[in-house]
Design goal:
Elements (H helix, E strand, L loop, with lengths): L21 E3 L5 E3 H7 L12 E2 L30 H11 L8
Antiparallel strand pairs: 1-2, 1-3
Organism: Amphritea opalescens
Protein name: DUF1272 domain-containing protein
Pfam family, one: DUF1272
């Protein structure tokens, strides 16, 4: 089950569970659309993969036992361990390779 992390790991922007600005890689590294497009060039700085929009978990319980009330979003904020220069250098080194080919 997705953690639905509460923030962008790069700029620390709040990304609530219903945010359409949240993007994740296959490891659930979470970044905002601005950082993905402008700083990271669709390259996850942690794994090198690409990003997809994070799904939105329904607030309402449409099926018994599922929904945000039963599976709340994480409250643990995560931050990248890399500097802005390291992020830019890493992204630049592999951004020309399509995510499906990395």
């Amino acid at each position: 089950m997705l953690e639905l992390r509460p923030n962008c790991e790069c700029c620390d922007k709040d990304l609530p569970p219903d945010s359409t600005e949240a993007y994740i890689c296959s490891y659930e590294c979470t970044f905002c659309r601005g950082c993905v497009e402008q700083q990271l060039s669709n390259v996850c700085p942690n794994c090198g993969g690409g990003f997809s929009p994070r799904p939105i978990r329904p607030v309402k319980e449409y099926r018994e036992g599922v929904g945000l009330q039963h599976h709340p979003a994480s409250t643990v904020r995560v931050h990248t361990a890399y500097s802005a220069a390291e992020l830019s250098e890493f992204s630049a080194s592999i951004k020309a390779i399509e995510p499906s080919q990395r």
